[in-house]
Design a protein that fits this description.
Layout lengths: L2 E2 L2 H4 L4 E6 L10 H12 L7 E4 L6 E3 L16 E2 L3 E4 L6 E5 L3 E7 L4 E7 L1 H5 L2 H13 L6 E5 L9 E2 L1 H7 L4 E4 L5 E3 L1 H11 L7 E3 L13 H4 L5 E7 L2
Parallel strand pairs: 3-5, 3-7, 4-6, 10-14
Antiparallel strand pairs: 1-2, 2-15, 6-9, 7-15, 8-9, 8-10, 11-13, 12-13
Bound molecules: zinc ion.
């Protein structure tokens, strides 16, 4: 098992979380087995887990107890057409699946609510991270200044060469460098962090994994290997 955890989230005993490099895609045969491996190791009930049929959009779904188990072990039952899951229900792990896109985990310790967010360049352009924060405010009374964020392994500025349409959509200020052939390299994790700050999170409450999925062979990377493997970013409130 290869996974990371965020120091800022580890301080709270009311939640558990991890970001795992092991494949947990429901589209590949070993995905369910790896989910069960982590369920056993982290003491959560896999049958309560929720994952989304992510669509590079900006829909946020509030997960209710009646959703528990949707997308736990089969792709068909995933919450359809959404890229951010939020909940204040206990023992309902939220799964976000990525391979280069930016995964974000959010926690409001005042109101006991969590979120998991998928932000590729399209979702970033749609400000999906802020949409999740705004929905936490609407549903749970969360104050952005109290929300902690972990930004997980994603393709880094070292590797993320993009075309002009992506630069325009995400923001030219997040171009980290330009290659000799004139291609821009974009810092997508930083773009998401900046959005979180713009919607009220404190800089000191945002933690980066610092891991580039494309440079680190342990992590699934679409850019590096066009893989069906997906890393999982998971968070839940413990009873
Ligand atoms: Zn890299």
């Amino acid at each position: 098992m290869t996974y990371i955890q965020f120091t800022n989230l580890l301080k709270y005993k009311q939640i558990q979380h991890f970001v795992a490099a092991d494949n947990m895609s429901l589209m590949s045969p070993d995905g369910v087995g790896n989910r069960q491996l982590y369920a056993d190791a982290f003491h959560f009930a896999l049958q309560n887990a929720v994952s989304a049929n992510q669509s590079h959009g900006c829909n946020v779904h509030r997960v209710l107890l009646s959703d528990a188990g949707c997308g736990a072990v089969d792709a068909q039952s995933r919450i359809d057409n959404c890229d951010a899951l939020i909940t204040n229900e206990l023992d309902v792990p939220l799964f976000i699946m990525t391979a280069d896109c930016v995964p974000l985990l959010l926690y409001d310790a005042e109101n006991q609510a969590v979120a998991a967010v998928h932000a590729g360049w399209k979702g970033t352009a749609l400000r999906i991270a802020c949409r999740a924060v705004e929905r936490m405010t609407a549903e749970f009374g969360s104050k952005p200044e109290n929300i902690l964020a972990g930004i997980g392994p994603a393709i880094g500025e070292c590797c993320y060469e993009v075309g002009d349409e992506v630069v325009e959509a995400v923001g030219r200020e997040f171009v980290a460098s330009v290659t000799s052939s004139g291609k821009s390299k974009l810092n997508l994790p930083l773009a998401n962090s900046a959005q979180l700050v713009s919607c009220g999170l404190k800089n000191e409450n945002i933690e980066f994994s610092g891991i580039c999925t494309c440079c680190n062979a342990a992590w699934p990377s679409w850019r590096r290997e066009q893989t069906q493997r997906r890393l999982a970013s998971v968070i839940w409130l413990k009873s």
